[in-house]
């Protein structure tokens, strides 16, 4: 092939050879630039499967545009020669650069972060590499890493999020995940396992596994504990125990890199502005003043460096990871907290966070004080609390897992609530402060002796269908005897986004004096089963209204995304249609960002909120439904908010901010004098 011209590429020299073809250095005769030309050997053109994978490499990789991923210029065939023209990278593969004793920590981390960035981009495009290894990573002289060879990449099938249904065992055994080696279904986490094997080799100078992955790799030597934990977690045999997303892996690597660069100095601390969780924004002066008093007191202590108020308060309202704040302020500890004022009671929650460890200092976290504190054994959550703090909080004992969105996933329990939005792929504008405020409301209610969670299926019903154990109602109380709303959060029937568009809605509704329930329904079974859960929940509330302290008159159903379809279905066809009891239809339906189109001839009054730029549930679909409802005589209020896409929740800080209170007003004004709620 050397010396031959294929299309407009003059082949100059052979660079290497792999299972998917021979790679040559070539010159583009028109543009006068070097390219890498991957050619499928002529004797293998007849292999239809090999050729299909060869073509798929180009299609998969050409969909990616990232500085750490090789750029594809062209794919073509001429004279029986199939080839891909790609970016020529002058450098060495990673397996050529790894010394026998391993790479220096800072260099290894620099390359590792870049590989992780490439995986983040590929996985976001629905592409799994499936053959990540040192030989498929090129590093230039200036340290730029490029991931090569998507010859084994599989575009994910629409049958499941992030999954590939292909079962062919392809890849390199020493870096292959257990599930890939077994030829079973894989998802993006197979790349995370392979990444762990690559990172291990970079640090140790030897492979993590010599064969079929049956043994545990030898412990790493002279590696910081936090970095070793990252490698170990990547190499977990069970995919549920690994990092669930490449973005989480990348962040952990960046934190480890920052820790290496952090200088040893005097003990240091920054006091962040305490969050005002009171309904009255006028109380913010008190929360600011509290933080300022702590700063003034600590500056008097010898041997302690305290960050100035101006620098610390610059992070007010910003969604910045605690490690990033610590790095920018150059401190080892951060004190954060919140203040909630309700009547004559003031509750202060504070936690001291060890920045290098990224978690509250032992004995100094989640401490709250007020006049009636004795029942609140767990204290309030802060924005930098973790998933573990939710799962193990005494106020949520027995149902804490139902607060979180997924039924079938293991959580990274060290994930801080500042990143809780990463658990909600169909949602946007997730505000950690709003999330913690609603969760702390439940903690306060539980501390005062109120029941905050109810099972609406009997034990016999749950034994009959065990999945019903993943259902329930969270209760946010308003005035006793006031009407109630039931909120069905969305999540594409794959998860339940209560933390973003369930609990925050309920807290807002209850502040207006109404009672609000947030539905936890079964996921993974589709809309009909989820709507059956809603019908059962409404029936339960109506039958137990006296015990719950709610009115049976004029209830409303609220839903967002998939949850809005459930609410609308009950509004259209009634509770009994979905297996519930003989119950009245709701007095109002509130729907947010959904493309539900079904309707009946007798719809309840309907309030609709959509985002102008919603690509998941285009507003045009809902607008057709609104028009049909209005033609049938149904009262409809329709709001389309500028600049917003799907899943905006309360819409805090956007054009939709306040829409929930508009919906409450709509519900209230439609009700008869006998049904009037809180005044």
Quick recap:
The protein is 31% helix and 19% strand. Strands 21-22-24-23-25-26-27-28 form an 8-stranded mixed β-sheet, with helices on both faces. Strands 14, 15, 16, 17, 18, 19 and 20 form a 7-stranded mixed β-sheet that branches. The protein has a 6-stranded antiparallel β-sheet with strand order 1-2-3-4-6-5, covered by helices on one side.
Largest sheet: 8 strands, mixed
Low-confidence runs: 151-169, 362-377, 672-679
Major β-sheet strand ordering: 21-22-24-23-25-26-27-28
Average per-residue pLDDT, rounded, comes to 84
The end-to-end span amounts to 86 Å
Portion of residues within helices: 25-40%
Provide the number of structural domains: 4
Describe what this molecule looks like in 3D.
The chain folds into four domains: 5-87, Phosphorylase Kinase, domain 1, CATH 3.30.200.20; 91-261, Orthogonal Bundle (Transferase(Phosphotransferase), domain 1), CATH 1.10.510.10; 268-373, Rossmann fold (3-Layer(aba) Sandwich), CATH 3.40.50.10610; 391-671, Rossmann fold (3-Layer(aba) Sandwich). Helix content is 31%, strand content 19%. The chain contains 20 helices and 28 strands. Strand 2 (9-18) and strand 3 form a beta hairpin. Helix 16 (527-543) packs across helix 18 (562-573). The protein is globular and about 85 Å long. It starts with a strand and ends in a 9-residue tail after the last helix.
């Amino acid at each position: 092939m050397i010396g031959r011209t294929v299309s407009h590429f003059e082949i100059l020299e052979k660079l290497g050879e792999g299972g998917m073809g021979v790679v040559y250095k070539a010159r583009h005769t028109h543009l006068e630039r070097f390219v890498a030309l991957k050619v499928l050997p002529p004797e293998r053109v007849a292999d239809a499967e090999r050729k299909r994978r060869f073509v798929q490499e180009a299609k998969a990789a050409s969909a990616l545009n990232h500085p750490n991923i090789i750029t594809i210029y062209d794919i073509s065939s001429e004279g029986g020669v199939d080839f891909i023209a790609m970016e020529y990278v002058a450098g060495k593969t990673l397996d050529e650069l790894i010394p026998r004793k391993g790479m220096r920590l800072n260099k290894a981390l620099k390359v590792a972060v870049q590989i992780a960035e490439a995986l983040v981009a590929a996985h976001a495009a629905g592409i799994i590499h499936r053959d990540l290894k040192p030989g498929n990573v090129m590093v230039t002289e200036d340290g730029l890493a490029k991931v090569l060879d998507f010859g084994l990449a599989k575009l994910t099938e629409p049958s499941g999020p992030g999954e590939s249904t292909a079962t062919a065992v392809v890849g390199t055994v020493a870096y292959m995940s257990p599930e890939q080696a077994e030829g079973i279904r894989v998802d993006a986490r197979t790349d995370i396992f392979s990444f762990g094997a690559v990172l291990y080799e970079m640090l140790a100078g030897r492979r993590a596994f010599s064969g079929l992955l049956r043994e545990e790799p030898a412990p790493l030597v002279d590696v910081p504990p936090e970095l070793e934990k990252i490698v170990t977690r990547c190499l977990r045999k069970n995919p549920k125990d690994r990092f669930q997303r490449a973005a989480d892996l990348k962040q952990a690597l960046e934190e480890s890199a920052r820790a290496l660069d952090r200088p040893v100095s005097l003990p240091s601390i920054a006091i962040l502005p305490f969050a005002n969780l009171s309904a009255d924004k006028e109380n913010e002066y008190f929360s600011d003043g509290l933080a300022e008093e702590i700063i003034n007191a600590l500056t008097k202590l010898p041997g302690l460096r305290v960050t100035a108020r101006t620098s610390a308060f610059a992070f007010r309202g910003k969604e910045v990871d605690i490690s990033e704040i610590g790095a920018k302020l150059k401190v080892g500890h951060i004190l954060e907290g919140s203040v909630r004022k309700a009547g004559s009671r003031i509750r202060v929650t504070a936690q001291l966070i060890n920045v290098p460890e990224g978690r509250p200092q032992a004995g100094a976290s989640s401490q709250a004080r007020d006049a009636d504190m004795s029942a609140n054994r767990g204290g309030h959550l802060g924005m930098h609390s973790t998933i573990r703090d939710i799962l193990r909080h005494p106020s949520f004992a027995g149902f804490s897992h139902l607060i979180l969105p997924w039924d079938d996933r293991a959580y990274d329990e060290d994930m801080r609530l500042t990143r809780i939005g990463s658990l909600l792929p169909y949602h946007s504008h997730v505000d950690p402060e709003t999330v913690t405020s609603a969760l702390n409301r439940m903690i306060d209610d539980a501390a005062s002796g109120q029941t905050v969670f109810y099972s609406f299926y009997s034990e016999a019903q749950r034994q009959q269908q065990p999945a019903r154990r993943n259902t329930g109602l969270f209760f946010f109380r308003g005035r006793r005897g006031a009407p109630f709303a039931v909120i069905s959060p969305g999540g594409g029937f794959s998860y339940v986004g209560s933390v973003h568009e369930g609990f925050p809605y309920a807290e807002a509704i209850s502040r207006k004096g109404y009672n609000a329930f947030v539905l936890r329904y079964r996921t993974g079974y589709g809309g009909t089963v989820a709507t059956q859960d809603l019908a059962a929940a409404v029936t339960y509330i109506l039958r137990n209204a006296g015990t719950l302290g709610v009115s049976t008159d004029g209830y409303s159903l609220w839903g967002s995304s998939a949850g809005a379809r459930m609410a609308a279905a009950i509004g259209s066809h009634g509770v009994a249609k979905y297996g519930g009891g003989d119950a009245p239809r709701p007095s109002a339906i509130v729907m947010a960002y959904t493309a539900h189109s079904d309707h009946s001839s007798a719809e309840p009054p309907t309030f609709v909120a959509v985002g102008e730029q919603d690509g998941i549930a285009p507003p045009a679909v809902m607008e057709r439904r609104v028009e049909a409802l209005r033609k049938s005589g149904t009262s409809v209020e329709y709001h389309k908010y500028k600049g917003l896409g799907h899943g905006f929740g309360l819409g805090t800080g956007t054009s939709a901010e306040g829409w929930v209170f508009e919906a409450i007003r709509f519900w209230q004004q439609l009700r008869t004098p006998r049904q009037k709620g809180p005044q």
